[in-house]
Amino acid sequence: MDMESVAPEAAPIPPVAVQPLQVVEDDRMCVRCGYNLRTLLLDSNCPECAAPVSNSFLSDELEFSHPEWVNWLARGVGMGCIGVALFILLMVLAITEAITKTPAAIVYYTFLFYIPMLLMMLGAISFTKAETSRKEATPDPKPRRFARVVVVIWTSMTIGSLMFNLAWRYIAITSAVNSVLHVVSLLNTVLALAIFPALLLYARHIARRSSSPRLETWARVLFIMHVILTTTTLLGMCYLIVTSGRAGSGVMRDGLAGVLGCYGAVTMLFTFVFAVLLYSALRTDRTSARNFWRSMDHATQTN
What we know:
The protein is mainly α. Helix content is 66%, strand content 0%. It folds into two domains: 46 residues, no CATH class; 225 residues. 24% of the residues are buried.
């Protein structure tokens, strides 16, 4: 037999690598309906709502979060923008009236300041609303809970202060009541200043998940600025209380109020710019989240 006519031996076929089926091994709730996806295949659908199981393992970016919750965030920041803008405007007008020595107008502006404060309170309540989906994938952050507690306390004290200012003419003010009111006023002022650092701690978390994560650096810088403002204001108020009635205390009070007022105005201005940028990013994320959930609903109806 001719050796050249013998066909060469075929090369051995390498074994085919079989990819193991990926199974959800831990407790993971469906991002759409909350069903426990444990033991289900990663490429399957939720038996409760037919949403793809893989959607519950996406990143924690806001574009994959529930659009209604992202809308609450954007709505809260939007109201905060309006409140801060009105606060800055009233601050400028009040300083102008103080320079022109118009006591009646100053009292009038004292009541007007409650309008931006109420707007900021409503915005803060909306902004600190708990996330309605992805709770297991994204645990409730401690900054949100802390900010929520501060917001609730500040709201309660501000409403009480407003009610008292409206009714103080009809109440007999004794020395004991007057002392309590001074303490409450001091606490309310500190809380009003502390609310911004508390919200900015949570805003850092939100900015990191937004379409503009670089805003997290803005939030960090503003947090430091507001901490300085809160601390110096508290120390300044304590100093003025201790030195009240001493010679030269009036000049010191005016100088301290001027310095803190200028620094506070600059801080609030930067806060307003940050809020506008965050609001713009949240609107983009809200649109992306709506598109994502529409596609998921469409896939659910198809399945």
